[in-house]
């Protein structure tokens, strides 16, 4: 794992770079009930070594491209992460690798570098070489003076694939060349350097964004107004009033994202886009208008049984969409981006009387699971919802603690999740937070453990959440222990029913310190148990 530090975007310090590529991701597609099996392996994962600097240096030398430029392009696109892109906008190919190469660029870069397209997608060295080869060819075509770093700006713009002039200029000046001027460093968790870029004072030889594009957004004063033509009127009546916020990732960088969404030919839009560091927000569509950001009709079974009266209607009718620069496959999101987005969501929720919880501020992938996964399993939902409530002056139930199966969603001071033995990430719909785990039942002591901290001894009620299915255990045992390890009692549940909602497991006298609830696997073979989330209230 690596942590990013960047003077140009200090908030990016919270980003984490995996030393072995993106973690295995739930597919978030409607899936049959899981069958007992050993944990799956992410065979489509990406290969990313702990040291990237030598790879950038070798590719730069091989293709006569400035190493600093190669690093800056990569950082502005992916924050030096090996991404495994998915489709977010129709007509835009998924991006792959450290250089976020797409479609024909990926194919041409691979050919120029003499590597396979699959290698260019999944291998860090091959992906960097493919990107360098593309930059070199574009420089030749543009007759760029290769020793003049500022003259490469037109090549950077062409490689981006961005067609909107203002967005293209923003990508060059406030993206790639801002990174060049400020520098960036990625450290592994042991303190060694994964990648680094020393500041280079250079001016991009490229037109700057037009001043007219910097007007404030009509609904959010902190936003920049980049109006999109891709919207229409919301339907009359309660079904057209905004009642949910949908969280997306662009599957690309910020400038390319809003630049695509203001294109009349794109046929898609979102109401807002938040940049990677949280330093800028664009508004594209008025909140009162119907944006075109989700291609699904609403099904309350995908969303905890909430607002079922909206079933069968287009989710665009009653939602406001927020895109975020970045990828569903990334291992973490910058703290600054989460903070800026939370402030925006607070403003939207307050102005439109939207409930501030995870059923009304919801993932794109949850409502459109057949074709979308964003914002991915590492979006910090608990932190995000808490921040929204904090900025809006709202409160969460006093002392309530939720422990999710993804620790990115947990407040580490109060909750954590732990697995022992062979568990597999699940993908069926109806999960809490961002995914869950399942494991085969057998005579083995290898539980899933939900830990929670209480400052004093307290009597609390524990609820469980799981995804129901026909092969689930009818006697899944949740065992509660106090901080001293004493067994307080067991709740036996039928996980074939009562899925996608909180189910009471019992009330117990817990002690001060770290208490726990363990989901046992110890029963007859032939079924699976689901470890998703617990709530302590």
Secondary structure blueprint with pairings:
Layout: E1 2-5, E2 16-17, H1 53-63, H2 67-78, E3 83-84, E4 95-97, E5 101-102, H3 103-113, H4 117-122, H5 124-141, H6 153-160, H7 165-182, E6 184-188, E7 193-197, E8 224-225, E9 231-233, E10 244-247, H8 254-261, E11 272-274, E12 281-283, E13 289-291, E14 319-324, H9 335-352, E15 361-363, H10 364-367, H11 381-391, E16 401-404, E17 415-419, E18 424-426, E19 436-440, E20 448-454, E21 458-465, E22 476-481, E23 487-493, E24 503-510, E25 513-519, E26 528-531, E27 533-536
Parallel strand pairs: 8-12, 10-14, 10-15, 11-14
Antiparallel strand pairs: 1-2, 1-6, 3-4, 4-5, 6-7, 9-13, 11-12, 16-27, 17-20, 18-19, 19-26, 20-25, 21-24, 21-27, 22-23, 22-25
Helix pairs in contact: 1-5, 2-7, 3-5, 5-6, 6-7, 7-8, 9-11
In short:
One of its GO terms (molecular function) is N-acetylmuramoyl-L-alanine amidase activity. With about 525 residues, the protein is α+β, with helices and mostly antiparallel strands.
What can you tell me about this protein's structure?
It is built from eleven helices and 27 strands. The protein is an alpha+beta fold and 537 residues long. The protein has three domains: 2-197, Lysozyme (Orthogonal Bundle); 215-391, Peptidoglycan recognition protein-like (Lysozyme-like), CATH 3.40.80; 401-536, Sandwich (Jelly Rolls). The strands form seven sheets. A six-stranded mixed β-sheet has the order 8-12-11-14-10-15, sandwiched between helices. It has a five-stranded antiparallel β-sheet with strand order 17-20-25-22-23, with no helix packed on it. It is globular, with a radius of gyration of 24 Å. The two termini are 34 Å apart. InterPro entries: Amidase/PGRP_sf, Amidase_domain, CBD-like_Golvesin-Xly, Lysozyme-like_dom_sf, NAMLAA_amidase_2.
């Amino acid at each position: 794992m690596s942590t990013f530090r960047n003077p140009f975007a200090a908030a990016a310090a919270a980003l984490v770079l995996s030393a072995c590529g993106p973690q295995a991701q739930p597919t978030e597609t409607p899936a049959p009930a899981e069958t007992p099996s050993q944990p799956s392996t992410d065979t489509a994962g990406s290969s990313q070594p702990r040291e990237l600097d030598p790879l950038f240096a070798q590719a730069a030398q091989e293709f006569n491209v400035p190493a600093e430029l190669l690093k800056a392009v990569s950082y502005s696109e992916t924050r030096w992460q090996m991404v495994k892109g998915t489709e977010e906008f129709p007509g835009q190919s998924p991006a792959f690798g450290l250089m976020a190469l797409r479609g024909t660029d990926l194919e041409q870069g691979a050919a120029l570098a003499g590597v396979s397209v699959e290698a260019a997608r999944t291998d860090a060295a091959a992906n960097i070489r493919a990107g360098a080869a593309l930059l070199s060819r574009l420089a030749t075509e543009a007759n760029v003076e290769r020793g003049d770093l500022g003259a490469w700006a037109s090549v950077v713009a062409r490689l981006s694939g961005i067609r909107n002039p203002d967005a293209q200029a923003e990508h060059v000046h406030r993206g790639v060349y801002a990174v060049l001027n400020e520098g960036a460093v990625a450290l592994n968790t042991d303190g060694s350097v994964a990648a680094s870029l020393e500041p280079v004072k250079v001016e991009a030889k490229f037109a700057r964004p037009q001043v007219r594009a910097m007007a404030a957004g009509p609904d959010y004063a902190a936003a920049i107004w980049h109006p999109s033509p891709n919207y229409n009127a919301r339907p009359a009546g309660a079904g057209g009033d905004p009642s949910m916020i949908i969280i997306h990732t662009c599957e690309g960088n910020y400038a390319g994202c809003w630049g695509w969404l203001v294109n009349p030919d794109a046929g898609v839009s979102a109401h807002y886009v938040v940049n990677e560091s949280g330093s800028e927000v664009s508004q594209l569509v008025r909140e009162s208008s119907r944006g075109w950001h989700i291609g699904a009709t609403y099904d309350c079974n995908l969303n905890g049984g909430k607002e079922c009266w909206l079933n069968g209607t287009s989710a665009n009718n009653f939602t406001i969409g927020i895109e975020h620069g970045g990828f569903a496959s990334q291992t973490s999101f910058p703290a600054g981006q989460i903070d800026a987005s939370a402030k925006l969501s607070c403003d939207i929720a307050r102005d439109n009387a939207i409930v501030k919880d995870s059923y009304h501020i919801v993932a794109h992938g949850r409502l459109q699971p057949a074709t979308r996964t964003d914002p991915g399993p590492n979006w910090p939902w608990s932190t995000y919802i808490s921040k929204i409530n904090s900025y809006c002056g709202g409160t969460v139930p006093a002392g309530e603690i939720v422990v999710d199966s993804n620790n990115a969603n947990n407040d580490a001071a109060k909750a954590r999740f732990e697995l022992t033995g062979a568990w597999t990430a699940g993908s069926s719909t109806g999960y809490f937070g961002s995914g869950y785990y399942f494991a085969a039942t057998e005579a083995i002591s290898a539980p899933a453990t939900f830990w929670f901290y209480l400052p004093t001894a307290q009597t609390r009620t524990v609820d469980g959440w799981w995804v129901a299915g026909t092969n689930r255990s009818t006697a899944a045992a949740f065992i509660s222990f106090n901080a001293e390890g004493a067994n307080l009692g067991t709740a036996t549940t039928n996980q074939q029913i009562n899925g996608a909602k909180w189910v009471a497991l019992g009330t117990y006298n817990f002690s001060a310190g770290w208490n726990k609830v363990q989901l046992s696997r110890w029963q007859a073979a032939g079924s699976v148990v689901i470890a998703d989330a617990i709530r302590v209230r």
